[in-house]
Amino acid sequence: MTEETKAGAAGMPSLEDWQHWTLVMGRAQQMLMQAWADSLDSSSSKSQPFAGWDAMPGMASPSAFGFSMPGGTGAEAGMTQDPMALMTAGAQAWAKGLEAWGHMLGVDPAKAEVKDRRFAAPEWRDNPLFDTIRQTYLALSDRMLGSVDEIENVDDETRHKLKFAARNFVDAMSPSNFALTNPQVLKRTIETRGENLLKGLANMLKDIAAGQMTQSKLGAFEVGRNLATTPGKVIHETPLYQLIQYTPTTDTVLATPLVVFPPWINRFYILDLNPEKSFVKWCVDQGLSLFMVSWKSADESIADVSIDDYVLGGQIDAIDAIRDILGVGQVHAIGYCVAGTTLAATLAYLAAKGEAAKVKSATFFTAQVDFAEAGDLKMFLGPEVMGLLEQLTTDKGFLDGRYMAATFNLLRGRDLIWSYVVNNYLLGEEPPPFDLLHWNSDTTNLPAGWHRNYLETLYQGNKLVEKGGISVAGTPIDLGKVATPSYIQAGREDHIAPPQSVWKIMNHFTGDKRFVLAGSGHIAGVVNPPAAGKYQYWVNDKPAGTLESFVDGATEHKGSWWPDWLAWLKEQDPKSVAAKGARVPGKGKRKAIEDAPGRYVKER
């Protein structure tokens, strides 16, 4: 028997094992060195290599992974013991540490939550060591989150901030997020002999270079190829937006056209992901003359835009363009999220100017006008964050959309950050193709001044609901003057625009209003096609002064709320006309500029 065989039989790593793991560590060191060299090439002389690594959730500098920079001995030190023994020792240390904290805080691991996708794999229960880690962590998490509710003499806002911080902390500290305490990662590491960690490191370095975490398979989707494919033409264009008119698919269409204002902080094609999910295609197939605004991603050319530009040069300009193209007096309008907030200001402005009749009806998708009870985004409005925004936008005058995307990801860190740390970096896998998450990562730059003003004046100051609290082109805005019939949709689980915040529109507009509470959240609550048969919605035709009283008397309906909205829209003006002439894109007085979805939505 050779010495190598004897070592293997005794349970010690063989010479081949040592050579293999030395090679793995060497390759990892080489990858890090190459990334370090690339960062030097792309950085200014004042930049610090790897300085941006710690800014990305779940990432750290190379030394945190046991690797040294030139002259160091991290790799050599890491090879002084059996790698598998180190992994086992790490898991045992975690288990003992968690148990100690559990005893100190008096938690009972046996009563821990059992349904948690992070611990769905059988290895978390089959192995007593990892079962202990799982149960103790969940019990400690429950205790920590519960302790926030027990803190005395703090106001609701402070308690909300504490709970948000505690939730993010316990999510970040989950044993599933660390290689040594995740049995799935350990199993994969043994099976692949470390190749998963090398692939994961490669994935992480690519994400660092891109400045963004990969959430969907790269190359699986392309705008215009398998996203935003509903036929239409760009028939009007300004430096701020493109206006798309969609090709009718019915012989007749409603006489009053519909224009959709999507949020300028995202790409419009969330409403046109694919034919099965597309609100755009569904509307066209229902016989609506549909127009879509596609906002330009901010660059230096529109860095100085303000609310005046988005109201006058954006929404009212689009409304007037459609009225001119089709020769009609009115339009129906939809405002989604922040564009719904601006639509409220637009309606108030038109009312002040005696031009309210330009908008036949208004629909609000998860939009807020009163920010007294706004969602978790208020966690990011402290002076340190506002100061950071100022620093990030001083040079070019716009905010890189990746920062906004990271903020939204933090609101659901467990699903949108840590699950990908595990899948992409620890297991070394590629994320599956997912159109919604591709859209989520397709960021839009924001004009710095307007973005800051929106946060300070509306979120912090709540000035929109004050009579004359804000002005548009010198005209004071008064939401109490808005009498336009309105359909107001909110998502029951929306964490960005909570239903209690969206409801407040009901308290400020004076016209006829219909409130609908949809199942799910900010995106799925809106993008819920009838054919999917998912979720539900609630309506209440009796007067309700509060959201609570609305819910108490509401009737639940299964499936999508879209048909309810369409019926309401037709009640506003049921007249139809033939789908010909100007109702066909490019056949009216304005010729087509280019095919939908246009080029603005593709610009970065």
Strand content: 5-15%
The strand count comes to 17
Q: Ends: how far apart?
A: 64 Å
In terms of quaternary structure, the protein is single chain
The global form is globular
User: Uncertain spans, ≥5 residues at pLDDT below 50?
Assistant: 1-10, 44-81
Helical stretch tally? 21
Q: What fraction, in percent, of the residue positions are helical?
A: 40-55%
How would you characterize this protein structure?
This protein is an alpha/beta fold and 604 residues long. Helix content is 42%, strand content 12%. The chain has 21 helices and 17 strands. The strands form 4 sheets. An 11-stranded mixed β-sheet has the order 15-14-13-12-7-6-4-5-2-1-17, with helices on both faces. A two-stranded antiparallel ribbon has the order 3-16. A hairpin with a 3-residue loop joins strand 1 and strand 2. The longest helix is centred in the N-terminal third of the chain and has 28 residues, at 15-42. The N and C termini lie far apart (64 Å). Mean pLDDT is 86; it is low at 1-10 and 44-81.
